[in-house]
Amino acid sequence: MSTTLAIAGIVIKDLYRRKDFYVLFVLTALITVVMGSVNLFHDDHIVRYLKEMCLLLIWICSLVIAITTTARQIPMERESRTIFPLLAKPVTRTQVILGKFLGCTADGIALAAGREAHASHSSGGRLLDFSLVLAVCVHKVPEGLALGALLLGAGFRPVKVVLRVAAVEATTLLGGVLGWYFLQQVSDAWLDAVVAHVEGGFLFLASHAVFGEIFKHHKALVLISFGIGFGTMGVLTLLLRLH
Amino acid sequence: MNADVSQDCRGPAARPSASAGITTAADSILRIENLCVDYRTHGSSSPCKRAVDGLNLSAKQGEVFGFLGPNGAGKTTTMNVLLGFINSTSGDAYLFGTTVREPIARQRIDYLPELTYYYKFLSAEELLRFYARIFKIPKADTDRRIDDVLKLVELEHARKRQIRTYSKGMQQRVGLAQALINNPDLLILDEPTSGLDPIGRMKVREIIQRLKAEGKTVFFSSHEMGEVETVCDRVAILEQGRLRLEGRVSDLAEQYQLSLEQLFLEVVGYSPPKATLS
Hints:
Chain A is mostly helical. In chain A, 86% of the residues lie in helices and 0% in strands.
């Protein structure tokens, strides 16, 4: 377990040492300010509309993140060849994969934040809750598929692949439980800040991933994936409205 | 003389019986037995490419073993098998008597890649701490080990700086430091002096010699024959995946009356171009 945690620690260090991370903070602050200023008018419709817009963006982002950022965690390690000195140590491939994807716990925290937001906001809360659940679930599917494909490509047996993907995805549940436990006791202001941070994070990563991947890889593939995600999100939003 | 060398060394397959200073299975730290590695080429109908063909090798404790061969000879593939990066097609390799397929076989070894592939957003100290955690070294020992290896590679002054700010020589030395953090009994070095300036090379060479004096086993590949001649006890020359020559450096020099570089060129069948520039 300590090996997995050590690898997860490196992933986190990589995140906060990037200059991009500070852009994320600025974006989060901006969204917090916008949402806060809207509340000044005490118009529930505007507040709800803006929240819907933000959640719409979360949906797009979650799909893009699933296909790009998550799936590229280990390929990036391989491209920069940092995987080799790491695998030369007494480390199993499972520990590397688990350590790398421990970040999925954040999804669970987002889920719990949505649930708590639902409990504290009388209007629009249900939509926020449902949207977050969907956003996380939707992006878990391609993430699992991407990871599964990667493991199959690496020569793992199908049974082992299923078990490992299940173990990785279970980290979301862990995050959910942690978030549920801790966020129950925080004030609305803190909860809003967490939600805004999650939104900002999704937004930033998605834009970063989309543009990054367009420049690095096949433009058509990225744009088609993006289009499919956007269309799916549109249909889901329509269905939500009908209900 | 040269023709004799060719005849002696270029057998159809690896011939450990023709080599000098062979170790037995019992005292060898590193042992490779009939190793074959095939690579699948593009397209299912194309035949596999055999990168390593029936390789037999062993290295014993306290030995500096030079693993030589031209580019594409199969050196890196063999190292990849030893490090567990790839599986062999047939045959096996053992470290301290344990098959390399088991991660525990790598508990007492460490590896320095040809180029520095480290997390450049970390400082040298953080990188070493990370690898120490992987080896489950107790915290008190970790601090001491970090101090020791940074002192050995002369990077104490830059221990808090991010690796991305290091020069190439410094990055190579931080690589050596990470390779020593667990005080390994066997070090596998893939062209450790590649791309370094003469001072950097000398420093790496000094470190290898110091390790040898401490009784460590060093298995390294290099294209620098002078360096190999200086630091190695034994060498093996590979060509097209096959072992062509193996023996003690001193014995080979005496037997063939050639420098290691001349011997290497003979073994790989290099003949200098006859045409000269007018």
